[in-house]
Write a structure and sequence with these properties.
Layout lengths: L11 H10 L13 H9 L6 H7 L3 H11 L3 H12 L16 H9 L5 H8 L2 H11 L3 H13 L7 H10 L4 H5 L3 H15 L8 H12 L8
Helix pairs in contact: 1-2, 4-5, 7-9, 8-9, 9-10, 12-13
């Protein structure tokens, strides 16, 4: 049970269909152009899953080489690379969560736990959270909060502040976000953020549709 999804289990065909049918960020929209043709060329390079594609596009040098081999544009491959890499979002630093005290962040850091990735295996079960609480001298409630923040931050584009906003609203697990009506979620988030002024970015309706869909594709490993 890993923090990240297993890219080897997402076939290239499945990934193509995701790009076709799911909401994409404005910068990703042009991936849909001639997508069947582009992906047919990629498949002809004996690439069958997302992990293999990630490896082929791992660096700018490899992107340029792949572009020469396939005649697919560098711009297209660069955006494709970023999109693939987004499936393994950067682990979030624990000392940057607005709801985690500096004292707790320091205790975590002393134990070698500085990011959500470091923390994940320690908080996925109630027993693990109890051990962590005892080890660090924090409350069970705080350990549970850490678990919920870590769980939510596995979703793409969810940063520390937005995770905190979701937790405050009661959408504090991936499972609850899976079950959400994105329109209602959007309305409630806007209302709460207007009151609390926590998240500085724009919260769009399409962003919430993306979030709910992202949660529905996520695995449920954290036990509550």
């Amino acid at each position: 049970m890993g923090y990240y999804i297993d890219l080897s289990k997402i076939t290239l065909e499945e990934f193509k269909n995701k790009l076709k049918n799911e909401y994409l960020l404005p910068s990703q929209q042009f991936l849909k152009e001639n997508i069947d043709e582009q992906f047919s060329i990629i498949q002809n390079q004996n690439i069958v899953n997302l992990q293999q594609l990630q490896q082929e596009l791992k660096t700018k040098e490899k992107v340029n080489a792949f572009a020469k081999t396939t005649s697919i544009g560098v711009d297209y491959l660069t955006v494709l690379r970023r999109t693939v890499n987004s499936y393994h979002p950067e682990a979030r630093k624990l000392d940057q969560f607005p709801c985690i005290s500096s004292e707790t962040a320091q205790k975590l850091a002393k134990a070698g736990i500085k990011t959500t990735l470091d923390l994940y295996d320690r908080i996925i079960t109630p027993q693990g959270r109890n051990r962590l609480a005892d080890e660090l001298g924090i409350s069970i409630e705080e350990a549970l909060l850490l678990a919920k923040l870590t769980d939510i931050c596995r979703l793409r584009y969810v940063n520390q502040t937005f995770a905190y906003l979701l937790v405050m609203l009661g959408y504090d697990t991936v499972e609850l976000i899976q079950k959400a009506d994105y329109r209602i979620l959007h309305k409630k988030l806007l209302e709460l953020n207007e009151e609390k002024n926590i998240f500085k970015g724009k919260i769009g309706l399409n962003d919430m549709a993306f979030l709910v869909n992202e949660a529905r594709n996520a695995t449920l490993h954290v036990e509550y």
